[in-house]
Amino acid sequence: MVLAQLGGSLSHTLARMTNATVVDERVLGDCLNEITRALLQADIQFDMVRDVQASVKRVVYLGALAAGTDKRRVIKKAVFDELCNMLDAGKLAFAPKKGKPCVVMFVGLQGSGKTTTCMKYAHYHQKIGFKPALVCADTFRAGAFDQLKQNATKIMVPFYGSYMESDPVKIVVEGVEMFRKENCDLIIVDTSGRHKQEATLFEETRQVSEATKPDLVIFVMDGSIGQATFAHAQAFRQSVPVGAVIVTKTDGHAKGGGALTVLVFTSLILHYPLGAI
Ligand SMILES: Nc1nc2c(ncn2[C@@H]2O[C@H](COP(=O)(O)OP(=O)(O)OP(=O)(O)O)[C@@H](O)[C@H]2O)c(=O)[nH]1
Ligand SMILES: [Mg+2]
Questions:
Q1: Tell me: the pLDDT tens digits for 51-87?
Q2: Where are the domains positioned within the chain?
């Protein structure tokens, strides 16, 4: 499982430090080295790991702690706080409001899980009282509309797309307009997969975004592809105003640091209850 191994290593390291008879600079140093190793093994960018280590060292100055202070607790808290800080974007992503129409556009690499996540997102919001709708702007991959149609039918969410029209901009404009008239308060636009090198396809994504003026653009990333995702995330961000990130496939790979790196560097995390979507 993505990040499960990292969580295990961090807990193990902190437990070892807690069990040490005396906590001194050497024990703290060993603890930080092990944490560094675990973070690097999980594919987290070196700069971020170095920053975490430096911040913990800055906060925990053992020589200055008053006698009787629980050093183990101080170290644990500092490590925990710095790991949290690393992920804290400091702001929440746009959240749809019931009864107030909004457009949410999903972008991402080919096969990253956009369509699947659109369904989960629609289903989740439907369950909590929204009136979602799905628009298929993927005219690029054969079968894309059928995939959306089948899944939308299963979760009983209205959808719009076309077998004949090849211009995704035209489809989204029509679809969004139709669902606005039907008072749908969450119009989800599924786009086709993009690769970093495909400049023309990026241009198409930009045009779809321009045409729909989405309230939120969600970058869907495959949590298992490691740090390579960072360059793709940056490329997407240059084309469209990405406002949140959803990490998929966290159920299938040992490394998740690449995902964390993107989240930290884009400073955009979509906050939902764990497992809600
Ligand atoms: N294990 C796992 N598989 C997933 C997850 N999300 C999506 N998939 C699978 O990944 C594959 C691609 O998913 P899609 O949702 O079609 O991806 P996409 O980004 O829409 O693909 P394109 O439209 O072709 O760019 C499918 O086989 C999904 O079942 C996930 O969270 N975990
Ligand atoms: Mg798709």
A1: 888 988 888 877 777 777 888 888 888 888 888 887 7
A2: 4-87, 102-266
Residues 194-205, mean pLDDT to the nearest whole number? 78
112 CA closest ligand 1 atom index: 19
- Strands 159-160 and 102-108, by their bridges, are unpaired
> Ligand nearest 112 Cα, by number?
1
- Which amino acid is residue 93, in one-letter code? A
DSSP state of 93: P
Indicate whether 97 pLDDT > 70.
Answer: yes
Considering only residues 265 and 195, tell me which one the structure prediction assigns the higher pLDDT.
195
How large is the average pLDDT for residues 241-255? 77
- Cα angle 210, 125, 142 (rounded to 5 degrees) comes to 55
Question: First and final CA of the chain: distance in angstroms?
Answer: 18
Residue 272 has pLDDT above 60, yes or no: no
Please return the burial class of 63, using the count of CB atoms within 10 Å of its CB with bins 0-12, 13-18 and 19+: exposed
Ligand 1 contact via 141 beta carbon (within 6 Å): yes
251 lines ligand 1 (CB under 6 A): yes
- To which residue do tokens 């990405």 refer? 242
CATH code for 4-87?
1.20.120.140
Same fold, 4-87 and 102-266: no
| CATH number attached to the domain at 102-266 | 3.40.50.300
